């Protein structure tokens, strides 16, 4: 399972990434929307862990790009904001599969991603081949 962790706190990203790597996941980190967009353009990911209010609402644009690049990506929002307490995140990020409130327990983060790995990933449809005339 390939995971991209996006949070403006680089130290926190590092802690989460090390924990997830020890749990067997392949992890990349980004600390800004621009860095996240570069990572998304450079590699494929199964899970995006993102702070929706990254640099304003930059986390939402990162989630949009991730969904555009991979319509099957599972997105976990991690936030301290009470704005998302009523389930608003699921309206703003259609691929959101969960919300964690900070501070995050590492075991909870790992459990979400481990749960996501048990979900089947749909295969991309086969590309049509051209017939020779």
Task: Pick out its properties.
133 residues, alpha/beta, Rossmann fold, five-stranded parallel sheet, 5 helices, disordered C terminus
Account of the 3D structure:
- This protein has 133 residues and is α/β, with parallel strands linked by helices.
- It has a domain at 9-78 and 93-100: Response regulator (Rossmann fold).
- It contains five helices and five strands, in the order βαβαβαβαβα.
- A five-stranded parallel sheet has the order 2-1-3-4-5, sandwiched between helices.
- Helix 4 links the parallel strand 4 (74-79) and strand 5.
- Helix 2 runs parallel beside helix 3.
- The longest helix is centred in the N-terminal third of the chain and has 13 residues, at 10-22.
- The protein is globular, with a radius of gyration of 16 Å.
Average predicted confidence as pLDDT: 85
Percent of residues in β-strands: 15-25%
Write down how many β-strands occur, each being a DSSP E stretch of 2 or more residues. 5
Rg on CA atoms, Å: 16 Å
The CATH class assignment of the domain at 9-78 and 93-100 is Alpha Beta
Globally, the shape reads: globular
Q: Helix content range of the residues, please?
A: 25-40%
CATH superfamily membership of the domain at 9-78 and 93-100:
Response regulator
pLDDT under 50 segments (min length 5)? 123-131
Q: What name does CATH use for the topology of the domain at 9-78 and 93-100? A: Rossmann fold
Structural class: alpha/beta
Q: For the report, how would you describe the main beta sheet?
A: 5 strands, parallel
CATH architecture group name of the domain at 9-78 and 93-100? 3-Layer(aba) Sandwich
The helix-strand sequence is EHEHEHEHEH
**SS summary, helix count:** 5
Organism: Halovulum dunhuangense
Protein name: Response regulator
Domain Response regulatory: 2-117
Pfam family, one: Response_reg
């Amino acid at each position: 399972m390939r995971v991209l962790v996006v949070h403006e706190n680089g130290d926190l990203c590092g802690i989460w990434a090390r924990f997830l790597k020890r749990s067997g996941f392949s992890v990349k980190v980004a600390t800004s929307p621009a860095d996240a967009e570069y990572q998304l353009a450079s590699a494929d990911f199964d899970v995006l862990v993102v702070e929706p209010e990254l640099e304003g609402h930059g986390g939402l644009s990162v989630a949009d790009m991730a969904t555009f690049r991979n319509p099957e990506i599972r997105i976990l929002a991690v936030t301290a904001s009470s704005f998302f307490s009523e389930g608003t995140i699921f309206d703003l990020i259609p691929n959101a599969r969960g919300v964690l409130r900070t501070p995050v327990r590492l075991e909870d983060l790992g459990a979400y991603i481990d749960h996501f790995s048990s979900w089947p990933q749909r295969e991309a449809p086969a590309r049509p081949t051209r017939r020779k005339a």
